[in-house]
Structures are given as C-alpha cells and as structure tokens.
Amino acid sequence: MKKNKDKDKQMNKNAFEMEDVPKNSKAVIKRLLSLLLQQKVRLLVVVSATLVGIGLYAVTPLILGRAIDALVQGINEQGFGGGFEMLMDILKRPVLLFLGAYLLSSFFSFIQEYIMAGIGERLVLSLRKKMSEKITRLPLHYYDSHQTGDVLSRITNDLDRVAEVVKTGSLQFISAIFNITISIIIMLSQSPLLTVLILAAMSISMFATKWISEKNFEAASENQAVLGELNGNIEEFFTGNLIIKGFNQQEAVTNIVREISERQYAANKKAQFVMYAIYPAIRFLTQLGFVVTAIVGGIFAAGGRMTIGTVQAFLQYVNQISDPITQASYFLNSLQTALASAERVFEFLDEEEEVPDTTSPKHVTAPQGRVSFEHVRFGYAPDSILMQDVSLTVQPNEMVAIVGPTGAGKTTLVNLLMRFYELNGGRILIDGTDIRELPKSELRKMVGMVLQDTWLFQGTIAENIAYGKMDAIREEIIQAAKAARCDHFIRTLEYGYDTVISSEDGSVSQGQMQLLTIARAMLANPSLMILDEATSSVDTRTEVEVQKAMARVMKGKTSFVIAHRLSTIKSADMILVMKNGTIIEKGTHEELLAGDTFYADLYNSQFASGGAAS
Ligand SMILES: Nc1ncnc2c1ncn2[C@@H]1O[C@H](COP(=O)(O)OP(=O)(O)OP(=O)(O)O)[C@@H](O)[C@H]1O
Fold first, then answer.
1. 324 assigned to some structural domain
2. Does 262 lie in the same domain as 131?
C-alpha cells in the first residue's frame, strides 16, 4: 500500500519524452475509425456539408472572373457612357450569385464545424469514461509499475491531442483536400498549361515549407525537453525544500536551475528564431505561385489567349489552394502525434484487469471474523516469490500483531487478505469461505483499514468520515468522531464538520488525519480491522490518542495490527514475527519473551535504544 507513493515527479518529463511515432499506425487508425463510425449519420452529414460548402466556395473566383470579363466587355462596347445603370446591368447577376455562393458556403461550413465538434467531444467523452472506469478495474500491481504522471498524461494530454485532431484537424484536412481538388479541376478546365506551371511553383515552396517545419519541430522538441527537465527539477526542489535547506544545498540547487535555465534560454532562442525569422522567408516562397500566375497570365492575356477575368480567377485560386496545402501538411504532421497518443490511450484501455468476481459467488451473511491462511504462496513477480508457505489461523475477535524488520512482508500479508493481489498458491479463508469466492466488494466491506498513509479526499470532514457509509446521518458521524477521539479537534475548526480538507492540505496534522481515518473505520463498522500503526509523524500526545482510538475501533473485531512500537502490542492475543516473507515466530508477548527469540531481541533492542518501547 505504501508503495504507491508520489510517483508523478516525472510527469512533465513523460509528457515530453512520449513517443511521437505510433508503433502500429494501421491498427490505431482502424480502431479510431471504428469508434468514429459509431456516429455514422453525423459523419455523413459533415462530409456532405463539407462537399457542398467547398464546392460553392470553389466556384466563387470563377463567378468573379466572369463578372470582370463582362465588365471589361461592357466598357469596351459601350465605354463609360452607360454609367451606373450599365454597371448594375452587368454586375447584378454575378454579384448576387457570388453573394449567394458565399453565404451558402458559410452556412454549410458552420453546420460541418458544429457537428464535427460534437462528434469529437462525444468521442473524447466516451473514451474518458472508459478510462475512468478502467482505473477502478486495474489491479494494484498496475499502480506499482506505472507512474501516476504517465496515467494522468494519457487521460488528459493524449486524449486532448486525439480530440484536437478529430475535431479541427480532420475537418480542415477534408476541407483542404476537397478545396484543392475542386480548385485544380476548375483551373485545369480553364488553362491546363498555367495550372501545371502554378503547381510546379507551389511544389517548390511546399518542399521548402516541409524542410522548415522539420527544423521548427526539432527546435520546439528540444525546447520542450529542456523545459520538461526544468519543470521536473523545480518540482523536486519545491517538494524537497526542507531537506535542501537542512543539508545546506541551496547553492547547489540554484546552480542546477541556473544551468538548465541557460540551456532552456538557448533552446528557446533557437526555436523562436526558426519561428519568427524563417517563416517570413517561407511566406515569400509561397508567393511564387502568384508571381508565375501574374507573369504567365499577363502574357496570355496580352496575347489574347486568356481573359483578364480568368487571370484574376487564377490569382484567387492560387490563394485559395496555398493555405489548404499548408493545412493538409500540418494535419499530416499532427496526425502522427495524435496517433501515437491514441495508441497510448488504447494501450491503457487494453491493460489486464483485476480477476473478476466468480459468476456464482458465496456470501458470508453474518461474519464472525475467523481468518485462516492455508499454505499461502505469493510473490509480487512470479519469478521472485516472497512468501513460500504461510499458514495461520486467527479466531474471531482476536487481536493479531504483526512485527518484523522492514521488508519482512507485514504489509504484504494484509494486502493479500484484502485480495489486492492474487495468490500464487494456497488460499485465504474468512469464516471458512475462500476469499476468491466472495465478491470483492463484500470482502472489502467486511474488512476496515486504517493505514499509516492516510488518504483524505477533497471534501468536508463529515464527507471524509462517511466515506465507508455514504448514507450516514450527521449524528452517526459525530458519534464515530467522538469514539475516534477527534470530535474535539473538529469542533475547534472554524467550520467544524463542514471544513473542507484533503490529504494535500497542511491544515490538518498527520495525527489528526489518522484519527479521522479511524473515525471513518468506526462508522463503517467492519467485522475485521487492519491497522498500520503510525511510526514517526505523530507527536507523543497524539500518538496516545491514536492508540486509544485504535483500541476502541478494534473492540469486538478480529484485528491485524502492523506494529512498529512493540510496547503497544503486549496485550495482543497473538504476535506474528515475520522475516523474509515467512512467519518465524508466533505466540503471546510473554511466551515469546520467555524464550531465546528474535522477538525478544527486537523488544530488548527497542528498550535499549530508549523511547521507542516506552
Ligand atoms: N508493490 C510491490 N511490488 C513489488 N515488490 C514489493 C511491493 N510491495 C512490497 N514489495 C517487496 O516485498 C517485500 C515485503 O514488503 P512489505 O511492504 O510487505 O514489507 P513490510 O514488512 O511491510 O516492510 P515495512 O516495515 O518497511 O513496511 C519487500 O522486499 C518489498 O520490497
């Protein structure tokens, strides 16, 4: 349990060190598409709206070209004498057509964007729901081997990237492809030669853009990596500030931050240079298409091969397709990253889950609290077995103390009783029923836990106490708090039971948090209790309070106490001495002390070291 400590120091690093290239793009695309296809009808509407909208948008230069030609012809035939009336006569139809096409195109573009945003949001919502549900179904060993930051970044950053590409990227891409295709078809129908020349000029600028964007990506990645390093270090120094001051390491820490900051400055400068100094050059290159159109179109128009209106239509088409080309290439870039993100999301969703409850579960209707471990064999990894053969029987209402050196397997023993991990051999019984035959929820309701690593969620004190019995009324909560000896301190707070707290906030001391978790266990009133005795973080007075509260919560229940101060467990019905995953001694305090035992050594050494056993 305490192994699941703060692992997210690396979060920032992870976010930047993530692989940006999916291992199996095809499979990821297929899976993503199959999820998107669950919204077939909406997708169909989006594609149709895009087609119509872009089609209308693409013909506008042609309409404008025709209008200009008609105007030139009118002026040539009638001079400027026709005045406003002539102008209206010539331009009325094309202007109305132009406006109609633009308005309709904007309307369809609104529809497509609106529906597509919904499609993206629905996709993300369903994935996020699946991921949250998954978290509750993952076995504990998943948490042991994965960093919190990694899981967090999958649920937030990765999903956001997928959403962004689905919502805006894909739409831009589809629009861009339609736009380019339709525009090129129209251009080809007007002048194949000029179209080919324009496309050749644009290809040169495309290659240059690609080269520059690669350089830009490299510079940005380098910048982000250093930034990640900086974040990671600052976070570490922030959380470890007490130790840093205690060991007079402020200067060393400042030097590290200064060195990384200087690297970050250099990396950022490079990234900014690429961004701001080279992009104008690219913009210049993209004008190549315009230059070719103006020169060749001008020559064609002068030679009578092309009307002025068509030249202007070409100029507009060049403009109309250069942006979509850039957008499409950006989309292809971001698609890579989004696919890598989607792959990480799917990987998480495919993680192996907790062994499900049996289909025909047994129930312990009136739990007595008899616990038996029968030849239990267990290892956190199958190839390194910690417990070879542990057997043990605990009678109802007995108090069992588990002692032993660090790493002996005390926590592991209670982890197994809670079925947080699956056994490699043997079985554990509660009142004669194998815990694997009980629904997990029933087992965990039967067993209460008060751990050293107290966990309080963001909420009021009352809500935190009622965590094990959500329907508890205020009076029950207060009774539990009184029994756990924390009612007094709660009442000294400004908002009493309605004070909002969390494990993160410093306003509640470690001892007080422990008292609250005892109150929580009191209220849930389980048949079995697991208590992990506080070691260091509690002052002597609070410790006495905690011990008294623990004694109360254990009353009339079978309890397992992981004990660190041997003086507190003298009254235990059974003391288990563990070493290297094995129970090496078993008996009462007196029995164990009478012999030449490891326990006696441990006990005497605590007395010798003073205080601890007092
Ligand atoms: N989640 C885990 N994954 C892998 N190994 C683990 C895990 N938890 C504990 N271990 C290993 O199993 C052994 C027993 O650990 P356990 O926490 O049960 O000891 P403990 O007696 O409770 O120690 P302490 O008094 O320090 O809390 C140790 O070698 C430990 O490194």
1. no
2. no
Provide the pLDDT confidence category of residue 613 given band limits of 50, 70 and 90: very low
What's the pTM?
0.66
Is there a single domain that holds both residue 186 and residue 254?
no
The H-or-E segment that residue 606 falls in is helix 598-608
ipTM above 0.95, yes or no: yes
Find the residues whose C-beta lies inside 6 A of ligand 1: 3, 144, 380, 386, 404, 406-412
Over residues 464-489, the pLDDT tens digits come to 899 888 888 999 999 999 888 889 88
In terms of domains, do 300 and 383 share one?
Answer: no
Which residues in 484-512 are b (16+ Cβ under 10 Å) and which e? Answer: bbbbebbeeeeeebeeebeeeeeebebbb
- Beta-sheet pairing, 528-532 with 447-450: parallel
Q: How far is the CA of 1 from the centre of ligand 1 (A)?
A: 9
User: Per-residue pLDDT for 391 more than 90?
Assistant: yes
- Which residue, judged by its Cα, is nearest atom 17 of ligand 1? 411
Residues of the domain holding 383: 371-608
Comparing 236 with 259, the larger pLDDT belongs to: 259
Query: In angstroms, how far is CA 197 from the centroid of its own chain?
Result: 49
Task: Indicate if 602 and 514 belong to the same structural domain.
Answer: yes
Pocket test for ligand 1, best of 7, 376, 380, 577 (most atoms within 8 A of CB): 380
Domain membership flag for residue 545: yes
| Residue 97: CATH number of its domain | 1.20.1560.10
